[in-house]
Amino acid sequence: MNWWDHLIIMLDLVLIAPYRWFENPVNGFFFGTFVLCLWCVFAGEITFRIGSWINRNHIRRFRSNMVRMHNLSVKALLLKDKENYRACNKEANEAFGKYFFNMLTMGAAVLWPVPFALGWMNTRFGHIEFALLFPLPVLGQSVGFAAVLIPMYILCRIFWAQIKKKMPDTPAEPGLKPGETGQEEMISMHEVEKEGRIPERFWDSSKS
Question: Which residues cross the membrane (predicted)?
Fold first, then answer.
């Protein structure tokens, strides 16, 4: 037996243990799946943080360029400089696309444990079905273990997101240090409409 087989066996023992902590198998199933969801959240968060740290310079550069070009396009728009507005707006859209897809890729790093968990549960609980009170289209009269894991994982993610908001040392976004909100503040169109002009702080060259 090689090291990979040993790793799989050890991992299986760790994951199945919470399912055996209750004498009632139903309670054990739901509790074990809850613990498995916590493992998925933890593993995804660790992966996300590592990826964010590795890509922190790229993320900061994309965001900085996006905000800078957006602010310049808003200034050009209010100054009725159409040529510069179009050029800056095009650059801002391209920077936003790079930033968006980079963050989308980072977001995928959060979800990778879920398919792994589904695959593992299939080896252990693939035969289990839960009867529904009434048949549903596509699903039929019963559902499998995935109908428990996926909603429970979503609830765990929501719960974790609420916890992170209250953690003082959590950065606002990847690539930033705790307490930082970004290199440059983005001009809010709501604020411009409210004041009828761009706030003075955005005209300060030292901040742009």
Answer: 28-51, 99-118, 138-160
